[in-house]
Amino acid sequence: MLPPSPVARYRVLYGDTDQMGFLYYANHFRLFEIGRAEWIRARGLSYRDLEAAGTLLPVVEAQARYRAPARYDDIVVIAAAPAEYGWATVKFQYVLTHEGDGRVLCEGYTLHAFMSRNGRPQRIPQEVLALFEQQV
Amino acid sequence: MLPPSPVARYRVLYGDTDQMGFLYYANHFRLFEIGRAEWIRARGLSYRDLEAAGTLLPVVEAQARYRAPARYDDIVVIAAAPAEYGWATVKFQYVLTHEGDGRVLCEGYTLHAFMSRNGRPQRIPQEVLALFEQQV
Amino acid sequence: MLPPSPVARYRVLYGDTDQMGFLYYANHFRLFEIGRAEWIRARGLSYRDLEAAGTLLPVVEAQARYRAPARYDDIVVIAAAPAEYGWATVKFQYVLTHEGDGRVLCEGYTLHAFMSRNGRPQRIPQEVLALFEQQV
Amino acid sequence: MLPPSPVARYRVLYGDTDQMGFLYYANHFRLFEIGRAEWIRARGLSYRDLEAAGTLLPVVEAQARYRAPARYDDIVVIAAAPAEYGWATVKFQYVLTHEGDGRVLCEGYTLHAFMSRNGRPQRIPQEVLALFEQQV
Which pLDDT score, from 0 to 100, does residue D13 have? Predict the structure, then answer.
């Protein structure tokens, strides 16, 4: 499938940093959230609408590898793309880079289950599947 | 009414601090949340149960005055108490102090509306009113 | 002085909401932070540079009044402006509105002290004062 | 090495949840932070003191697998332990369980580098190494 491509920019807040002066490690997963939401939005759907239509996408697994620190006021470029999918799951991949110098700051993935509102696994909706199938 | 009294302790996380090395200003309001929840719990009710029974308590106004910084790993003593109430509102007051040296770190309040699940103002439930009336 | 004018837009993350489905009350203060940083940046300075040059702007007091909830994926328009200043303090004012329908979601302020790196009060730097003086 | 054992309890805040009503996925990493800090503290050291003495422990990699959701006001039992270590790295493992019913909510790890204040890799301090060597 296609590698992650830039979908959003995020400027690091004071409140995102920790006393090391770096973007706190857990907060990178907030940027991953932006990444997958904007990847979907760029293709004409929105996660909000999916949820309103009864499809939830809880995270089953998440991982990040930290390459270099992001600092206060840095602009982080968020690249995202689905990496693989099954009948009821999808794995998104992310690369965060520093806008100023292009350094890779963080790479990671999130694995999601498609779930109905009552908590049961659910086949990927056709309109979403179509998006994934275009990614080859 | 009675002044705020200690209801909880909170140890400042790395992720709570910012690059100044202090508890980020917005995060003090998380400690206020702990304060009002524990004040209620200490009196035999729980906010979770109130909500499950249909009473929501959204914040209408919030204020904090920062006296001294809380640092990483510091233990903050959270004192809370209702300061005043109307037929459908309550104001909680908070004082955060440093456990080690007793310094006041932050004071503030939150004003809440009692609301039903459909978003309409709602009279204070009798069991909650009884708690407030004991505070004189 | 001039009233707050739009300086930034912020899309509400899943991670910003709470189980009521609303932007958590403490997180509005993160948007206030964006507001004052972008107000300064729009005038050719940056808070990062101020800090690097030895001027810190810790928050002394903060208040928010919540008018209407911001929901997941909503775009919030952040308006900000200095409201008043003394020789070593400045008060910023904020108005958050819903981009879709223009409703006011939240209003508030933050009061800041100008402080040197060693923690002592410090006169407003001349270049910053010049910005405030243009706001009449 | 010894498996993770309980080192702390954490009550889920309103502000930790998202609109699904669950502890937001990124926030589990905050609980992991509590886990490793308390594991160290239970053995007579503190991460704060390590840092003050010049040893930093930035996160190099982090992973979580989510088994079941933690909800508002739930008490989460945090179990932690070092899983393996090299001359300048340590991997901590975590298990989060629901205090009420004992269900596993989340498992994960964080990989850390020992680093000096100037950013260079650093051998594990002797006093920390001693703690790890007791874990067999």
Answer: 98
Please give the full DSSP string across C6-73, using - where no structure is assigned: EEEEEEPPGGGB-TTSBB-GGGHHHHHHHHHHHHHHTTT--HHHHHHTTEE--EEEEEEEE-S--BTT
Q: How far apart are CA C63 and CA A71, in angstroms?
A: 27
CA end-to-end distance (rounded Å), chain A = 5
Distance in angstroms (rounded) separating the CA atoms of residues B85 and C130: 45
Is residue D49 among the annotated active site residues? no
D18-77 per-position pLDDT tens digit: 999 999 999 999 999 999 999 999 999 999 999 999 999 999 999 999 999 999 999 999
**C-alpha pair distances (Å), B73 with each of B3, C122, D34:** 27, 29, 10
pLDDT at residue A135, rounded to an integer: 85
Instruction: Report how far residue D90's alpha carbon sits from residue D115's, in angstroms, rounded to the nearest whole number.
Output: 12
**What are the CA-CA distances from residue B71 to residues A80, D42, D94 (Å)?**
35, 20, 25
Residue of D nearest to A61 (CA): D65
Please name the residues in contact with B109: beta carbons below 8 A apart, sequence gap of 6 or more: B61, B62, B63, B83, B91, B92, B93, B94
| Backbone torsions φ then ψ of B103, nearest 5 degrees | -60, 140
B partners (3+ CB pairs within 8 A) are A, C, D
- Kindly name the residue from A18, A73, A74, A101 that is annotated as catalytic: A18
Residues in chain B closer than 8 A to D47 (CB atoms) = 14, 73
When CB atoms are compared, the residue of C14, C20, C26 closest to D24 is C14
pLDDT tens figures, A39-58: 999 999 999 999 999 999 99
Model ipTM value: 0.96
Q: In the structure encoding, which two tokens stand for residue B6, read together?
A: 């200690």
